[in-house]
């Protein structure tokens, strides 16, 4: 996948990707606490992402996008997460799905339609995969969502949960089983405004509250036959795909690393400004606090190297194995959680006060554990591989 041109700046040159992302993150941070408190979806943030061209950062140039790769995507997602991580999660799913469109060879007219809509800033897509009984498809099993083939098209019925970003989605990549004599499993592309779709506002979580990852009910939703964009026999899905595994692992890793960096920044500001009466100097002067900040810096430095190196390998056509991608995700998210926990432990009550952002960062970063693949699955796969089982 080609990378966008990001020239060195001159006086009249447009801002670089990093500068654009940093400016938007600072803007989004102003309202992040309110979105967390209310659980309201950050629609205005997506207007700004569209204006900046970030919805089409990895969309092919032939469709009007920027043609970026995973290096650019992780920079954008990690940067936006420092301001408002729910926005960053929805953005990461946009990038993951558009990367899949290219990699999996969707019908040309649909690939172009979604690409040009993203470039125009009017289209967001995410996959709807998880179900109440099935849980995450990554752990095996067939979806209960059924795609029934009829002369007029596919009729899709089912119940999806954890539908991240549903208030703003234009397209739903629905994971379904066909009703054929030999069932196939895969993705049916469904317009989010199609008749028969109902959103049940069920999302009320500890963290990442503004993602609005509600339940979605599909009741006999009709889509054209060519919207079955990636159907395969069930056995064909048992072998993870290196490219998609890497994109998913690194985008999720970058997101929660961004949350940890915001927590680190607040912690450093707290240590510099807090002057206990019995000490007569800022907490930052204490060796114990300096050691703690150094420990956080070590965790985040490892994250930066892992994300940058693996993303570069993917863009160069050398994606890590799915097992290695899982280990990178496990390590990066574990480091992010550990970094925030260090800050929380050493700030005492202020760190857990809802008046301070560290408490919100802590709730958000803990959500890293729920993303596929979960830590136990990663360790099991790596262990079995090492043992030759």
UniProtKB/TrEMBL annotation:
CDD domains: ACAD (cd00567). Keywords: Flavoprotein, Oxidoreductase. InterPro entries: Acyl-CoA_DH_C, Acyl-CoA_Oxase/DH_mid-dom, Acyl-CoA_Oxase/DH_mid-dom_sf, AcylCo_DH-like_C, AcylCoA_DH/ox_N, AcylCoA_DH/ox_N_sf, AcylCoA_DH/oxidase_NM_dom_sf, Mito_Isobutyryl-CoADH. Residues 17-95 form the Acyl-CoA dehydrogenase/oxidase N-terminal domain. It holds the Pfam family Acyl-CoA_dh_N. It comes from the Bacteria. It comes from Inquilinus ginsengisoli. Residues 251-372 form the Acyl-CoA dehydrogenase C-terminal domain. The lineage of its organism: Bacteria, Pseudomonadati, Pseudomonadota, Alphaproteobacteria, Rhodospirillales. Residues 131-221 form the Acyl-CoA oxidase/dehydrogenase middle domain. This is Acyl-CoA dehydrogenase. Transmembrane segments: none annotated. SUPFAM superfamilies: Acyl-CoA dehydrogenase C-terminal domain-like, Acyl-CoA dehydrogenase NM domain-like.
């Amino acid at each position: 996948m080609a990378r966008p041109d990001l020239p060195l700046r001159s006086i009249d040159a447009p801002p670089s990707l990093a500068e654009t992302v940093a400016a938007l993150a600072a803007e989004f941070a102003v309202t992040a606490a309110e979105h967390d408190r209310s659980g309201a979806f950050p629609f205005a943030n997506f207007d700004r992402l569209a204006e900046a061209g970030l919805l089409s950062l990895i969309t092919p140039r032939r469709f009007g996008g920027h043609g970026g790769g995973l290096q650019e995507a992780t920079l954008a997602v990690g940067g936006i997460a420092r301001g408002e991580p729910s926005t960053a999660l929805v953005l990461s799913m946009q990038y993951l799905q558009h990367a899949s469109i290219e990699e999996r060879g969707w019908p040309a007219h649909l690939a172009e339609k979604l690409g040009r809509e993203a470039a125009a800033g009017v289209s967001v897509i995410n996959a709807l995969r998880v179900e109440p009984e099935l849980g995450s498809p990554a752990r095996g099993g067939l979806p209960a969502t059924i795609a029934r083939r009829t002369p007029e098209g596919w009729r899709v019925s089912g119940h999806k949960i954890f539908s991240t970003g549903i208030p703003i989605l234009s397209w739903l990549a629905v994971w379904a089983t066909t009703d054929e004599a030999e069932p196939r499993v895969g993705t049916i592309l469904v317009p989010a405004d199609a008749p028969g779709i109902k959103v049940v506002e069920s999302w009320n979580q500890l963290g990442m509250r503004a993602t609005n990852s509600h339940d979605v009910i599909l009741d006999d939703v009709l889509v054209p036959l060519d919207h079955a964009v990636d159907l395969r026999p069930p056995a064909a899905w048992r072998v993870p795909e290196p490219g998609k595994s890497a994109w998913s692992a690194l985008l999720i890793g970058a997101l929660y690393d961004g949350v940890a960096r915001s927590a680190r920044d607040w912690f450093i500001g707290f240590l510099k400004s807090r002057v206990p009466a019995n000490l007569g100097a800022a907490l930052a002067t204490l060796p114990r606090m300096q050691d703690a900040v150094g420990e956080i810096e070590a965790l985040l430095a490892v994250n930066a190297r892992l994300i940058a190196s693996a993303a570069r390998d993917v863009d160069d056509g050398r994606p890590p194995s799915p097992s290695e991608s899982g280990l990178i995700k496990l390590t990066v998210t574990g480091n992010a959680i550990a970094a925030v926990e260090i800050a929380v432990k050493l700030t005492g009550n202020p760190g857990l006060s809802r008046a301070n952002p560290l408490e919100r960062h802590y709730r958000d970063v803990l959500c890293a554990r729920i993303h596929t693949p979960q830590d136990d699955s990663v360790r099991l796969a790596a262990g079995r591989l090492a043992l030759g089982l």
